[in-house]
Structures are given as structure tokens and as C-alpha cells.
Write a structure and sequence with these properties.
The complex is a heterodimer of chains A (239) and B (120). By secondary structure, chain A is mainly α. Chain A has six helices and no strands. In chain A, 69% of the residues lie in helices and 0% in strands. Chain B has two domains: 30 residues; 86 residues, F1FO ATP Synthase (Up-down Bundle), CATH 1.20.20. The model of chain B has no long low-confidence stretch (mean pLDDT 85). Classes of the chains: A mainly alpha (239), B mainly alpha (120).
Chain lengths: 239, 120
């Protein structure tokens, strides 16, 4: 399969420092495009904040309220303080996934580097939140399971289970988006009286839109579940 | 299909596979090593993905069936059941995605190809 360059290519401005390549890597450039879109939309929405909101501000308020609802439902009333991390990750992944449907752009989440960065951020964050909420001794007590003398067995198992979380988060998102994009690329490379285009518009495009939303939702939900598990202490109600 | 019929079909398929693989191995012994590598790796990738997709489909169908039954029993809880179902489906799907990753690595980024094709 030939390599088609994306519409926006940024020349390598760090070449003097020894970074190889003539261009900034595609997934990095596309991630910057996503960032530009998010910053631009946020700026337009918050330019003049009114008590009676205009359409842009209204839309962003709906989005933020959705995140806050999910957070309070999953983590409880203290969930709102995790809104910056969860909201940013969710919106970045959503816009990043949807960027693949625009011709001339590739989704940045179709690259394992981007998704691994997001997953590692979530992993480090929920551990940090857990330690900040409960103190390091109580947090490590979580890993030892309910019965204390089983700790030498439970601790490695829990540790490996926790390590599996960023791996599964990153590979799930990467596999879904990259697989979707690969199937579309192979489909459109078939020349067969225009039937591939019909299949693309009728089946693959709706499927890829659906997958984009579902995968970003899953990432956000799982991040909230991990944060909830780390932050809720023993005597509170377990969700 | 009754049980004995199913058992007979299974026996027939096994015998055919055994015989067929005999033919394939006999043919491969006459060829140089690298085409055996490619044939086996492509077969492995294809079969792995097929089995993973089938198993994931069965698992997801069980999740959807129980979610639908729960919604039928208590329609008021439908949104919460839907959310849990979507999360469960995505978790099961991710297992098939892991196999897709392995298949993609086998096809496109095979680390052992440099032992088979000199200079790859």
C-alpha cells in the first residue's frame, strides 16, 4: 500500500538538534491539529460568557454537563475534581478518532504512541489520585486484598492486574481505530466499478463513526472506574 | 443436527484436515525454507483472527442476550443496563483486537523475517 501524506505536514523544526526525518511525524502533526480544533472551539465558546448562553456556549455546556454527570455517577460527589483529566482525554480521543473521516487527515489515535501516552497518563494519574486521597500506606493496603496474611500472594497478582490496565487501554483504542482505518484503506484501494465506494459510504463510514464514539466512551468510562477504585476508601460504598 | 451426526461431521473434518496437511507438508519439503515460513505465518495469522472473531462473537452474543432479557424484565432500568452492556461488549471486543494486533505483526512487522530472507 502506498503511503499517502496527510494534508497538513509540518517540517521538522528540531532537525538541528539531531531529530531525524524531514517532517514532524504524522501522528504528532495530527495530534496538534486535534489540539488546535479543541482550543479553537473552546475559545469560541467562552469568548463572552452569558447567563443566557449563545449556541456555541450552550453546546459546550451540554458536553461538560455530560462529563460531570458521568463522573458523579461513577465516582460520587467528589468526582468533579477529575473533570479536567477525564474531559480532556475524552474530547481529545473523540475528535482524534473522528478526524479520520475527514479526507486528507489521519486519526492520531491510530498510532500506538498516542494511545499509549493517553493510557500511561491515566495510569499514573489514578495512582496519584489514590495516593493523594488516602495516603500511601492505605493505598498500598488496597493491593494486599481483604485478608492480610494472603498479601504475599495477592500483591503480585494485583500488581500485574494493574499493569494490564494501561496496556489494555492503549491497545484497545489503537487496535480499533487502526483496524478501522486499515479496512477502509484496503477497501478504497479496490477498483471495482465504484462498488467499494458504495460499501464505504453505506457501511464503513457509519461503522467508523460509531466505533469512534464508542471507543472514546469506553476509554473515559474505564478511566473513571479506575479512578473510582483508587479513590474510594474501604468504609465507603463500593460501586 | 443430532449428537451422533455432529460427532461424525467432526470426525470427517479431522480426517480431512490430517490428510490435507500431509499433502501440504509433502509439497513444502520440496520447496526452500522461506516459502514454508511465509505459508505457515499467513495461515497462522488468518486462522488466529478467524478463531478470535468467532469466540468474541459468541461471548458478545451472550452479553447482549442477558442484557436484552434484563431490559425486558425491567424496562425502567434500560439506560443503565445499556451502558453496562456497551462497556462489556467493548471489553470482550478488545480481546479480539489483541489477536488482530498479533496478526498484523505477523503479516507486516514480522521480527523473524530477517532470519528467513537475507537482507530483509
Amino acid at each position: 500500500m502506498e503511503h499517502h501524506p496527510t494534508l497538513i505536514q509540518i517540517p521538522n523544526f528540531l532537525g538541528a538538534l539531531g531529530v531525524p526525518g524531514a517532517w514532524v511525524p504524522e501522528h504528532v502533526a495530527m495530534a496538534w491539529v486535534v489540539m488546535a480544533i479543541l482550543v479553537g472551539v473552546s475559545y469560541l465558546a467562552t469568548r463572552r460568557l452569558d447567563a443566557v448562553p449563545g449556541p456555541m456556549q450552550n453546546f459546550m455546556e451540554v458536553v461538560v454537563e455530560m462529563f460531570v454527570d458521568l463522573l458523579t455517577q461513577m465516582i460520587g460527589p467528589k468526582g468533579k475534581r477529575y473533570l479536567p483529566l477525564i474531559g480532556t482525554a475524552g474530547l481529545f480521543i473523540l475528535v482524534g478518532n473522528l478526524l479520520g473521516t475527514v479526507p486528507g487527515f489521519k486519526p492520531p489515535t491510530a498510532n500506538l504512541n498516542t494511545t499509549a501516552a493517553l493510557a500511561i497518563t491515566v495510569f499514573l494519574s489514578y495512582n496519584y489520585f489514590g495516593i493523594r486521597e488516602q495516603g500511601i500506606a492505605a493505598y498500598l493496603r488496597h493491593f494486599c486484598g481483604p485478608i492480610l496474611w494472603l498479601a504475599p500472594i495477592m500483591f503480585p497478582i494485583e500488581f500485574i492486574g494493574h499493569l494490564a490496565r494501561p496496556i489494555s487501554l492503549s491497545i484497545r483504542l489503537f487496535g480499533n481505530i487502526f483496524g478501522e482505518e486499515s479496512v477502509i484503506a484496503i477497501l478504497l484501494s479496490l477498483i471495482w466499478l465504484g462498488i467499494p465506494y458504495v460499501i464505504y459510504l453505506g457501511i464503513m463510514m457509519p461503522l467508523s463513526l460509531f466505533t469512534s464514539f464508542v471507543q472514546s466512551f469506553i476509554f473515559v468510562m474505564l478511566s473513571m472506574v479506575y479512578i473510582a477504585g483508587a479513590v474510594q476508601s474501604e468504609h465507603e460504598e463500593h460501586h | 443436527m443430532s449428537r451422533t451426526q455432529g460427532a461424525r461431521v467432526l470426525l470427517l473434518v479431522t480426517v480431512l484436515l490430517a490428510l490435507g496437511s500431509q499433502v501440504a507438508f509433502a509439497a513444502e519439503e520440496a520447496k526452500p525454507d522461506s516459502s514454508t515460513f511465509f505459508v505457515v505465518s499467513v495461515l497462522t495469522g488468518g486462522f488466529a483472527m478467524a478463531i478470535a472473531s468467532g469466540a468474541a462473537a459468541i461471548g458478545q452474543s451472550r452479553a447482549i442476550v442477558s442484557a436484552l432479557e434484563a431490559i425486558g424484565r425491567q424496562p425502567a432500568a434500560a439506560p443503565r443496563i445499556q451502558v453496562a452492556m456497551i462497556i462489556g461488549l467493548a471489553l470482550i471486543e478488545s480481546l479480539a483486537i489483541y489477536v488482530l494486533l498479533v496478526a498484523l505483526i505477523i503479516f507486516f512487522a514480522n521480527p523473524f523475517i530477517k532470519y528467513v530472507v537475507p537482507g530483509a
